[in-house]
Amino acid sequence: MQPTYRNFNATESLPTSAVSPDPINPLPRAVLRSNTYLLLDGDWKFTHDIADEGLAQNWQSGHDFAYTAHWPGSVEDHIAQAHQLNDGPGWQDKVVVWYEREFELPEREPASDAHPQPMFQLTFGACGYETQVWLNGKQLQTIEGESIHYGEYTSFSYELGEKLLQPTNRLTVRIADTMDADIPRGKQESLVYKRGGIWYQTYTGPVRSVWIEPVERNRLRSRVGVVSVIEDNLVRFNLTTRIHDPGQYVIHLQIDDQSNPEAGTLATGEFPLFLDFGQKNQRVVVELPNAKLWSPDDPHLYRLTAQLIDEKGNKAQIEAHFGLRKVEARGCCVYLNGQATYLDGILYQPGRATYEEMQRHFYAMQKLGCNLVRVHIAGIDPRIYNLADELGLLLWVEVPSPHQSNNRSRENHRAELDRMLALIETHPSVIIWSLYNEDWGAEDIANNAETRQYITDTYHYMQIYHPQFLVVDNDGWHHISQEGRLKSDMLTAHLYTPDLNHWRHVLDRLVAGDLNGVAAFPLVVGDPFFYRKQVPLIVSEWGGFGFANYGGPQDAEDRTERIRQFKQELRARPIGGDVYTQATNIEEERNGLIDPQTGELSVPEGLLRSVSK
């Protein structure tokens, strides 16, 4: 029998008392269930389907897999290990791989007249880009009804039908990926952008844990949206119900102070509603009197316990933490909870970092004096968002970009945005979203009205349905103006120069409203836009010292002094924030300030903090 584990809190999953003492890989999710789970990580059978013949030959019904591979991992590593290669990836334009393992069906509570038997749910923390799954030779569909799941940055789940389950089960997974420039790739190479410089090796496949757990037939899904109305001490929760048995239900909410459990229950709410078969999104509102606000100086968190209760009193429960905060962009500044807040940011590219390495990176970035981390067009382990909530680090997240602009790439971009929003909008630390970066996937933004309209429509969608975030349309330059109205909450610029005098000159032109010639391309496209400090001006990339293509100081002491001087010039002007590039070295970009493995700093602590505390 394989070990099962019980969830206890939102950042850690610990073993029940009578389980294997082997090291545990906590589940990569932020919203928890009070249940047990069976972790399916470990050695899987593996084979590289070089000719892409597995589907035609029905490998899901039985196949002699030639190798073994450790899940989670990457296709690139698994192919290299299987073929004993040490010279990089084992695929160029397309890759197809298969994984398989057996598992014993975990125990679960038996059914009774009062309590229906739980069903089993299979969840992949992240896997892709295209994933197909079979149980005992029968293809599964995700809860969203997909035979093929597209995407590689967020989790997805399957409900396992009772007729398919056996005491010992065979799980088969086919994963396919290509260099297709129409799919969200972030900074992974593609047919358009080849590896080298700022473009990285592909890192795809079974990149996060997979697990099976018993869940109630009628339940709340593991996703919670939170919008704070701090002026009225209100919290709006967006919940998703999953129903197999139509009927009358009650959503019961309880709020506790996570940092002070002795305070007892602070607020409750009950919301009766009829629920039909399928899935439904429901917004409910709870008043939280005398609420403490979340901020970098005081990252105060509350605990939400949400239950779905049926007519017989059966309860299905999820738990999450949240914080109350309000972010605005008006005039020259970003305001957090009504206070002007300068963004001392740093660009973070996780690359192939492990969860433990990312934890060390976040502690190090806070030591540098940063209050903001810009997670650069990548998906990260969702527990890192929890860590940022607890540390009080603001996050700027971005949709991993496709690499060319057309209708298909825009459809893929929007689907990726929706997948990320469903799983990230719980966190008070996330305050900014970028839709695109430097025209990647929107290279025709300056001359294609259709591209500009898609980005404009998406910006308006975010304003209406996700008002808890600030949104940047295209970070760095080529922001969209319609009738003189910017379709971005901030005017951002990427500025790179190693010369201090030129730096001063560029910043002076920028704050004076010169939108042409300061960055690589004009800052605004579309209708004329006249900058008069009506939106915050953010230098969202600068530095790059140590990266060969940017120049600049190589010596650590010289780099430290140059950063200090450049930072002083930023703060001497009406600028709302800046993002130094970057946190760690990654592949050919050797401009990091933090050791990628140990998290040690190569510069003094507090170097990027612009205001003494």
Describe it:
The protein is α+β, with helices and mostly antiparallel strands and 613 residues long. The protein has an 8-stranded parallel sheet. Strands 5, 6, 7, 9, 10, 11 and 13 form a 7-stranded antiparallel sheet that branches. Strand 27 (394-398), helix 4 (407-424) and strand 28 form a beta-alpha-beta unit.
DSSP summary, beta strand count: 35
Strand order of the largest sheet: 29-28-27-26-25-35-34-32
The largest sheet is:
8 strands, parallel
Shape: globular
**What portion of residues is helical?**
10-25%
Distance between the termini: 54 Å
**Would you tell me the overall average pLDDT?**
92
Low-confidence stretches: 1-25
| Residue share in β-strands | 25-35%
**Backbone CA Rg:** 25 Å
Structural class category? alpha+beta
SS element count, helices = 7
